[in-house]
């Protein structure tokens, strides 16, 4: 397990600094994934899936090799995308239809990226520890997702609807 390297309360301020003056979605998503991975303890994956041609396609991330494509409505990422709501899964083994990209993952949180009514994608975090994610994590990650959505010019990304 990776130890925390900083105070997670710094996450939003650091993200704002990384996004300052940069509108490129891929650059900002890459920095956001790196910040999350570095600052939050007990993660084995942190990254993004973006909606392209009607499915979620892996974007910038930190961690092991990931599943490349996920159908909206399938697995934790697809469920969060379909609901447009954060999904916290304390034990992925008990989540119906969970997609195993990394067999070491035991819990997961997925936060949707939404601009107005448009789904852009999701922020996905996995942990090798069961019960890793809480409402406090959602309260930390949802503003980060909103900040990323606002910081980027999504017409540059080839995301559905932009």
What does this entry look like structurally?
The chain has 162 residues and is an alpha+beta fold. The chain is built from 4 helices and 6 strands, in the order ααβββαβββα. The model is unreliable at 1-6 (pLDDT under 50). It has helices at 11-19, 25-39, 75-83, 135-151, and strands at residues 45-52, 55-63, 69-71, 87-89, 107-115, 118-127. A hairpin with a 5-residue loop joins β2 and β3 (69-71). The chain has a single domain (8-156), classed as Beta-Lactamase, CATH 3.30.450. The protein is globular. It has a 6-stranded antiparallel beta sheet, sandwiched between helices. α1 (11-19) packs antiparallel against α2.
**Under the CATH scheme, which class?**
Alpha Beta
Distance between the termini: 38 Å
CATH homology-level superfamily: GAF domain
The tally of domains stands at: 1
Task: Just name the CATH architecture.
Answer: 2-Layer Sandwich
């Amino acid at each position: 397990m990776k130890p925390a390297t900083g105070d997670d309360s710094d996450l939003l301020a650091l993200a704002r600094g990384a996004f300052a003056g940069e509108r490129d979605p891929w650059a900002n998503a890459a920095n956001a994934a790196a910040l999350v991975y570095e600052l939050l303890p007990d993660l084995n994956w942190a990254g993004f899936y973006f909606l392209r041609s009607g499915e979620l396609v892996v974007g910038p991330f930190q961690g092991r090799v990931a599943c490349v494509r996920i159908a909206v409505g399938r697995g934790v990422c697809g469920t969060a995308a379909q609901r447009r709501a954060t999904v916290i899964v304390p034990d992925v083994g008990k989540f119906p239809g969970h997609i195993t990209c990394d067999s070491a993952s035991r819990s997961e949180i997925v936060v949707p990226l939404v601009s107005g009514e448009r789904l852009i994608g999701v922020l996905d975090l996995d942990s090798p520890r069961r019960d890793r994610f809480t409402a406090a994590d959602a309260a930390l990650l949802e503003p980060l997702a909103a900040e990323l959505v606002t910081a980027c010019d999504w017409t540059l990304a080839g995301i559905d609807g932009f």
